Amino acid sequence: xxxxxxxxxxxxxxxxxxxxxxxxxxxxxxxxxxxxxxxxxxxxxxxxxxxxxxxxxxxxxxxxxxxxxxxxxxxxxxxxxxxxxxxxxxxxxxxxxxxxxxxxxxxxxxxxxxxxxxxxxxxxxxxxxxxxxxxxxxxxxxxxxxxxxxxxxxxxxxxxxxxxxxxxxxxxxxxxxxxxxxxxxxxxxxxxxxxxxxxxxxxxxxxxxxxxxxxxxxxxxxxxxxxxxxxxxxxxxxxxxxxxxxxxxxxxxxxxxxxxxxxxxxxxxxxxxxxxxxxxxxxxxxxxxxxxxxxxxxxxxxxxxxxxxxxxxxxxxxxxxxxxxxxxxxxxxxxxxxxxxxxxxxxxxxxxxxxx
Length: 356
What we know:
By secondary structure, the chain is of the alpha+beta class. The protein is built from eleven helices and twelve strands. The chain has two domains: 2-56 and 146-288, no CATH class; 62-144 and 294-354, FAD/NAD(P)-binding domain, CATH 3.50.50.60. It has a five-stranded antiparallel β-sheet. A three-stranded antiparallel β-sheet has the order 3-4-5, with no helix packed on it. Strands 1-2 form a two-stranded antiparallel ribbon. It is globular and about 70 Å long.
């Protein structure tokens, strides 16, 4: 249990609660849920520029990271086709991979196919079900994809000024503006209460909020004097109590709750808002292909990690279809901006390719 780990090392409740947020990020779980300690480990393992457990902003926004990977690939001769949706994986007579078919009818032939899509899309939508073992299909269908995350992107005409650390007169970013700011995290019990509400189908009345202002470090992301604020919030159930859907009214009501909370810490925040983009779990699924809106393609619970990710006997990136590999967040070791699953899958695919 995460609570036991934090209690062993720390005394301050606000510090423990702030650290606890990394144990429940993207998880429909409470800091008191067994296995939550691993999610914390997952988020602080590794290093950035020699600093263990460090995180960083990407200059130019997260899309710049994708562009850097794309440029590295094309420099080695790769061809990238954007906005070309894959319709299905092409299979030979013996069930082996022969390439992919695009929605426009184009067929791309290949002896190997690596899928960065979720296990659900890869195996339940792109492959004929009769080509897969029944127990494997059942396992993929049973993966817990519940997500508590609603992402809100905000444009503001000035930096938030927090009661705990008011802005300087010149309005320039202070050190805390350049970090991850955690709100509604004064105690782990608050996080547990927020989770409990969502578990019963109600958006948290006092949601966990992780607030970042990337334009404080990267001014090119916003016009002079203005800023972009990224809000990563929990907990919001995919389906609301009573089977209600996330209509415009429900989405705005939840966002208003989040903004009211921020206003308590930084008076004047609501008046500074120029626009907002609200992405609930169904929105994240529809736009980005994330099953259930889950940023990790499936819960990072102990029953869905290591040898069981995405299914027992298939944690080594190979799939029941010869030549088809899973290289995304649904593969071992799970999600996060670290590239481990992709690198490992590539190593396995290269090894197999030498024997083809």
